Amino acid sequence: MSDRPSMSLSGIVLDAPDARELAAFYRRLLGWTVSQDEPDWVKLAAPDGGPGLSFQTETAYTRPTWPAGPGDQRMMVHLDIKVEDLEVAGAHAAASGAVLADFQPQDDVRVYLDPAGHPFCLFTTE
């Protein structure tokens, strides 16, 4: 018997200068629906019932630098998004408002920056 209480991850939260703006980007990118919408908080629901993705407005938000050097604001978290085709998914990400990062550390992964500067990775398992 474990003394650990029952816990489950219900979501990931990203800070942004404008929660609604960043949520709209990820809604375009992922096609997820809004499950909660408040002035400074938006939550997107995963269609498979998995953890959702939430956004909160943070007025003191500092955009991370990718890749970070000494003294740069570092990312706190990044999202890994599995795709079937990197080129097709990358074109969709760009059309949704993402920017391809200048630095790409791997051939089978593409790093993009969302409108608030959070890096996220598109990858395949081929």
TrEMBL record:
SUPFAM superfamilies in the cross-refs: Glyoxalase/Bleomycin resistance protein/Dihydroxybiphenyl dioxygenase
Signal peptide coordinates: none
One Pfam family in the UniProt entry: Glyoxalase_6
VOC domain sequence ranges: 8-126
The protein's name in its UniProt record: VOC family protein
Organism: Sphaerisporangium rhizosphaerae
